[in-house]
Amino acid sequence: MQTCSFVSRRISDSAKIFALLFLYLYVVPVELHAQKKLSSDLKSASEQFLGTLTAEQKALATLPFDSEWRYDWNYTPRQRKGLPLKQMNESQRKAAMNLLKVALSDQGLAKAEAIISLEYVLRQVEKRPENDTYRDPENYAFAVFGSPDAKQPWGWSVEGHHLSLHFTIVDNKVEFMPSFFGSNPGIVLPGYIQEGKQVLKEETDAAFRLLGSFDEQQLKKVMLANKAPNDLLTTNSRKVNLENREGLALGDMTPAQQKMFHELINIYLSRYHVTLKNQELDRLRQADMNKIYFAWMGDREPIRGAGHGHYFRVHGPTFLIEYDNTQNGGNHVHSVVRDLTNDWGEDLLKAHYEAAHKK
Predict the structure, then answer these.
(1) Which letter does DSSP use for residue 16 in this model?
(2) Which helix (H) or strand (E) holds 248?
(3) How far apart are CA 206 and CA 239, in angstroms?
(4) Residue 189 φ/ψ region, left for φ over 0, alpha for ψ in the -120 to 50 degree band, beta for the rest
(5) CA of 35: how far to CAs of 47, 65, 178, 274, in Å?
(6) Quick one: angle between helices 274-286 and 28-51, nearest 10?
(7) 24 CB-side CA count, 13 A
(8) What is the mean predicted confidence (pLDDT) over 132-144?
(9) In 104-140, which residue ranges form alpha helices assigned H by DSSP?
(10) What does DSSP say about strands 319-325 and 333-339: parallel, antiparallel, or unpaired?
(11) pTM
(12) Of the four listed, 100, 106, 176, 357, which is most buried by Cβ atoms within 10 Å?
């Protein structure tokens, strides 16, 4: 028996060593290569975009990397830093949208384009003229911070109503948070153009499926309040200030519920380039996915147009998703993904500047 136990330990130790070798000899180099390629592709796309611009346009589209405007983001209609689509010709718009095409997945790009197109719906809903500048599908501004460079940090963003995406590139690594996708209407009601369109349907349906799977005891933990807040709790803050993780932890769910929870997180991360999706999933695993919590407030059924609303969040040690659908009678969605330590690439920038200081 002692011999068998000893052999088992030796086999177990060998398996761990093999797994570590596989990780460092194969997985890590592949991931680093993927990150470097994405960084290079974004650099090329950004340079191509800037290369199409006139001197006057470039002055609007470019800002210093250390500018405070890099942290100024919002998801409401307003004037924005950067160069808006309305001030671009067709080839310039194509180059700008190519930045999104490189950084997002096909699903993510489709969602971004659909969010922009909802401005046409809002013009009809609010009886605004075709040339209205408040509900404006051309008021989405692209900005490049710093100079696209493999050695120096730089970044870029696109901002408009219900779309606020930010990418920071440091030492061939790409960070993509904060990242906001919203939708007004949440679902286009009968009688309007694009009737039935629901841009964030996957996210909404997956969350309701998970909520519907909980038993009475689990719901006591999941339900934080019967009334939902009227917006995201973190709004458009530069840094997340939401300390307490509340609700039900993934580790306390049944296997079937855990699968649904994973699917919900995967839907959010599948908006982005597969390299970004994989790097974030790897971070979540390292931080212990069992400690990610799911919480809900408000209606437990998707009721629209009756003054109801609902809110949920996914809150882990390093990661936050917030979803709020309360405005316009529960038919106006705000949703954000945040990195609790690395929004704006802060962790990467800290490591970059520390390494530069040591040289």
Answers:
(1) H
(2) strand 248-249
(3) 27
(4) beta
(5) 18, 21, 19, 10
(6) 140
(7) 5
(8) 97
(9) 106-125
(10) antiparallel
(11) 0.90
(12) 176
